[in-house]
Amino acid sequence: MGDMFRSEKMALCQLFIQPEAAYASIAELGESGCVQFRDLNEEVSAFQRKYVNEVRRCDDMERRLRYVESEMKKDEVTLPVLRPEEEPSAPNPREIVDLEAQLEKTDNELREMSANGASLDANFRHMQELKCVLENTEGFFSDQEVINLDVNRKLDPEDPANLPGAAQRGQLAFVAGVIKLERFFSFERMLWRISRGNIFLRRADIDGLVADEETGRPVLKTVFVAFFQGEQLKQRIKKVCTGYHAAVYPCPSSHAERKEMIKDVNVRLEDLKLVLSQSADHRSRVLNSASKHLPRWSIMVRKMKAIYHILNFFNPDVTGKCLIGEGWVPTNDISTVQDALARASKVSESSIPAFMNVIETNEMPPTYTRTNKFTNGFQNLVDSYGMASYREVNPALYACITFPFLFAVMFGDLGHGLILLLFASWLIIKEKQLSSIKEEIFNIFFGGRYIIFLMGIFSIYTGFIYNDVFSKSMNIFGSAWHMNYTRDVVQDENLKYITLRPNDTVYKTYPFGMDPIWQLADNKIIFLNTFKMKLSIIVGVIHMIFGVSMSVVNFAYYKKYASIFLEFLPQVLFLLLLFGYMVFMMFFKWVVYNDTVEGPLSPACAPSILILFINMILQGSQDTPEPCKEFMFDGQKSIQQVFVIIAVICIPWMLLGKPLYIMFKRKMNGAPAPKPQSAGGEGHGEDDAMGEIFIHQAIHTIEYVLSTVSHTASYLRLWALSLAHAQLSEVLWNMVFSMGFKYDSYIGGILIYVFFGAWALLTVGILVLIEGLSAFLHTLRLHWVEFMSKFYEGAGYAFEPFAFKTILDVSEDD
């Protein structure tokens, strides 16, 4: 937890590496994941860098890998999943040559098999369609038609009947083929139009589905035969067939020739089936062999490409015998980087070892907060608002407790909290098995499993405080109230209500949480409303005061001591003297006013805190009956006037204090030269023009004064959601589950199960999921706006080290 108070210290390091050891050095640094490299060749285009050819080689290998993987997906070949300890390291130069040759061989072999397979499939499909044409056209011909019907018949040019212009009566020709059934009717109309009705078209549907040659999907097809006269009409028909993607096949008119042709086609089909089967077996063997190595090849190529990409960031020295690079390194990991460089120099057998220097810079370093699987979820919530400035106080450390607590204030139910706890416990116990699931929605819950776990624990705690279990109460310690009425009074039909006064009926204090007797009280909602409303204001003011106080830690670290007096002090005074005082009045009213005394301190004379606070701001007053008093203690009016005056003074203090200090400082030291904004600045540096400083400070002051009021009221959402959650839970119990208790016979026993199922489903779906998500979002807003805005700047940028693990995880997500 100590590492989470601030981001880690960073150092800008300069690396000097020999070219022969550069590849091995970057590989070792990629395994350690400790360096964020800077691009020293930003002006150089990607095509002019030193290792551009190596990057292209990696791109070519990635292309081949993608093709091989796509072929495996077509054949539904499963790839083995590598465990983290089985992942290969970055390949050395000799392994790169072997890997490239192996990939090229596999790629070429698969492409050749795919081309041959496509040709064989096309031939097989055409043979099947030809067979269908020959078989389905059997009923279109008869032996008597052979004399005057022949598609292959050649006309004798010396025959007078065949001269141009002569009638060709009695000589019918035909075209046979296969077309998609959905296109046939349009095809038929087109033939009718081009021939003016001089074509006789017959069709026979093919049984079952046939693979489409264009898409490969199964479609319905039909065999057609078009009878016609004349060579010119034949050419038109063939053009229409081409336009409709209809396949035309030769079909003899003689029955004997067709029968002989069918035998020939059947022989060729059997041969093609044998060849296709052998080709499929060979393809399966190649793909299964490649699948055993493909995950390793993919990891090796990605690592190799990442290494050469980082090497393009390096700049060669003047002599060209050394590569110089720069990068940010956490100071705690400098020794790790040095060890990695030493190992790389030893592996590459370099004559001069690589070394690293820490250089001074005024540039703001990246922000890096070291987390574990428990704190990572909370850190992600904070980073979603904005990355912390370098070495700024990290709100995630406190959000580990305040976030689940504020959630539980709105979600206070022991039963619902137990459901959250059980769900989160299952996610934590099955952590290793569930981490392999890549479904997006599930990963959101899985990533926040420890947040849900704490939210469940705190909801159980607040459920004990509210004494609320699925809208019912538990009488664990025995009620502190006792009945002081006789049986006759209680059973009086004319008596509508029984009033229990604390002075007469309370004999002890309920040890923990809410007394269960409030579950039976008619004024339950009124009592819980006032209790939860005041509780939400108290929690909110404490939360905001803590946020303002954290700004002192930032000012002290960045050595802005003047800001402690000119910004923090007026801010905390303004908050404490107004809303802190209101919280004090709540506790004072609870302690002083009770039912054991009469007169001004009796409960009937207790003043309204809201009216007192409004009169304090507006300097008003109210009339009170005797013996009650307007104020809760002597001198309260004078104290309130002093508090209001000091709070009003704090406004110009915040508005003019810092600008006047900067102006005075400039006059004493002279006009300084502009300097880069330092880390932890307020968005506007002290070297800006005075006009900009005054405007910025005015905006900051107006924002703080107005937000102090609005943020305090914003914490009332704790009360509103808690009340809504409790009432909705009670409605579900009374309107759903309790309906099963109204039947006494065996039917009632059956209905209890039915109503319980409906109640459980609605409870989980509405109260746990929807209400839980609503409470989560409201809690997130309270942290982002009401708490973190008091001290958190969030103007930094994330530390993104060169790490193979990150690169491989991103590749898997893509």
UniProtKB/TrEMBL annotation:
GO molecular function list: ATPase binding; proton-transporting ATPase activity, rotational mechanism
Domain of life: Eukaryota
Sequence intervals crossing the membrane: 405-429, 441-466, 537-557, 564-588, 639-656, 746-770
Main location group: membrane
One Pfam family recorded for the sequence: V_ATPase_I
Any one Gene Ontology cellular component term annotated for this protein: plasma membrane
InterPro entries: V-ATPase_116kDa_su, V-type_ATPase_116kDa_su_euka
An annotated GO BP: vacuolar acidification
Record key words, sorted: Hydrogen ion transport, Ion transport, Membrane, Transmembrane, Transmembrane helix, Transport
Residue runs in coiled coils: none
Membrane topology qualifier: Multi-pass membrane protein
Keyword Ion transport included in the entry's annotation: yes
Cellular localization per UniProt: Membrane
Stated family: Belongs to the V-ATPase 116 kDa subunit family.
Function: Essential component of the vacuolar proton pump (V-ATPase), a multimeric enzyme that catalyzes the translocation of protons across the membranes. Required for assembly and activity of the V-ATPase.
Name the UniProt record assigns to this protein: V-type proton ATPase subunit a
Primary gene name: Dyak\GE18538
